[in-house]
Amino acid sequence: MRYFKLTVAYDGKSYVGWQAQNNGLSVQVTLEQAWLKLTGEKRRITASGRTDSGVHAEAQVCSVRTESSLPSSVFLKGLNAYLPDDIVVIGAEEMPGDFHAIRDALGKTYRYQIQSGPIRNVLARDFWWYVPPHLDVAAMRSGAKFLVGKHDFAAFQTTGSDRLTTVRTVTELRLEYREEPPFQWVQIFISADGFLYNMVRCIAGTLAEVGKGKHPPEWCREVLQSCDRTRSGPTAPPHGLCLISVDYPKTSP
Amino acid sequence: MRYFKLTVAYDGKSYVGWQAQNNGLSVQVTLEQAWLKLTGEKRRITASGRTDSGVHAEAQVCSVRTESSLPSSVFLKGLNAYLPDDIVVIGAEEMPGDFHAIRDALGKTYRYQIQSGPIRNVLARDFWWYVPPHLDVAAMRSGAKFLVGKHDFAAFQTTGSDRLTTVRTVTELRLEYREEPPFQWVQIFISADGFLYNMVRCIAGTLAEVGKGKHPPEWCREVLQSCDRTRSGPTAPPHGLCLISVDYPKTSP
Question: Rounded to a whole number, what is the distance in Å from the CA of B121 to chain A's nearest CA?
Answer without folding.
Answer: 8
